[in-house]
Design brief:
single chain, alpha+beta, four-stranded mixed β-sheet, 11 helices, 14 strands, globular, ATP binding, ligase
């Protein structure tokens, strides 16, 4: 019997042979759809898969003069810990927090967000897990996830390497924008507790604990009640809806999101030049992880405080008569909050914001 010749296999280059797997990318999209569907708002038009996300701007008609607030950010080197531990469904919370908690600082309501995930090789389940975390974070922030992009960069990133970034949009009434121009002498500073390190300073944390300290991510610490890796991957707390609730129940002059730069530098951004913010360290005790970083790396307190949040993730500046209703609102929402300082007249030897006293034990 005569056999038909086997068709010759193509020998030329292809996108797949160059390292980009379109089919794997398509599978990742299918896996993430159910999570994206959970992160929506009534104003979202259409679904996942278009070239652009659509948001019905007629929702802004309820504003007299709507201003759009925009922010973009990433998660930083915390993604490397996620890679090492094989945990991908928490850093999305970090991403949303970094973006949307910046937006709410001006008093804006978070509306929608897009994400960008860059990988060395598409692992569909991994991509879906990352998007799951982003979608969950969007729900916690009250915004919609209207789209995103996954890019495969073989040759630039290793097969297991990845990074994430996002951009968000919010809206605020022009005459309700918060900031330094509203802050007054006598305002009280209400601190809201962080959930841990959040997503800043991880280059220092990794250098101190892993490189210099030689600590294992699997090592269990009694102070944490869990492993070091679990502690370091604790997601950033998302304050957006808590801050919006404060605006509905109390007079608020400013918010400060405590990210890179630490407490004093971020608070100083919302304090006018003629005033001075004073935070009292004795009003709270930073979580044990901050002490571990300091002790292991012999890191000076000044360096810790200008790099890490030291237990405070958001600060609200309110008039004295608004303190009680503000604290009550936050307590009702399960937010650990306390009076941490005040706004004073600026003297010749004071700075924009400073910390005094020794941390509570």
């Amino acid at each position: 019997m005569r056999m038909s010749p086997t068709p010759a296999q193509p020998t030329g280059a292809s996108y797949k042979s160059a390292g980009v797997d379109i089919e794997a990318g398509d599978l990742a999209v299918e896996l993430m759809k159910k999570w994206v569907a959970k992160a929506t708002r009534p104003e979202v038009v259409g679904g996942l898969g278009g070239f652009a996300g659509l948001f019905d701007a007629s929702a802004l008609k309820r504003y007299e003069r709507p201003l759009l607030a925009s922010a973009t950010d990433g998660v930083g080197t915390k993604v490397d810990l996620a890679r090492q531990l094989g945990v991908y469904d928490t850093i999305g919370h970090d991403l949303v927090a970094m973006v949307m908690d910046d937006i709410v600082v001006c008093g804006a309501e978070p509306l929608f967000m897009t994400d960008y995930i860059c990988v060395g090789k598409v692992h569909p389940e991994r991509i879906a897990a990352i998007v799951k975390g982003i979608a969950e974070g969007c729900v916690l922030a009250g915004c919609a996830l209207v789209g995103g992009e996954t890019a495969e960069h073989p040759g630039l990133l290793g097969a297991d390497d990845f990074d994430v970034a996002g951009a968000g949009t919010g809206a605020v009434e022009a005459d309700r924008v918060l900031g330094a121009d509203r802050v007054r002498e006598g305002d009280v500073l209400i601190a809201m507790a962080s959930s841990g390190l959040h997503s800043n300073g991880y280059s220092l944390v990794r250098h101190v604990l892993l490189d210099r300290g030689g600590l294992s991510l699997d090592r269990r610490f009694e102070d944490f009640g869990r492993t070091l890796g679990e502690e370091l991957l604790e997601p950033t707390k998302i304050y957006s809806l808590d801050c919006l609730a404060l605006l509905r129940t109390s007079e608020v002059h400013a918010f400060s999101h405590i990210t890179g730069g630490g407490l004093a530098a971020n608070l100083a951004r919302v304090i006018p030049d003629h005033l001075h913010a004073r935070l009292d360290r004795t009003t709270w005790a930073p979580a044990p992880v901050f002490d571990l970083v300091g002790r292991t790396g012999d890191v000076a307190r000044e360096e810790l405080e200008k790099t890490l949040n030291m237990g405070v993730g958001m600060i609200a500046a309110v008039p004295a008569e608004a303190v009680e209703p503000a604290l009550a609102t936050l307590a009702d929402r399960g937010v650990d909050a306390w009076v941490a300082g005040e706004v004073l007249a600026r003297g010749a030897h004071t700075e924009g914001a400073a910390l005094v006293g020794e941390y509570a034990k």
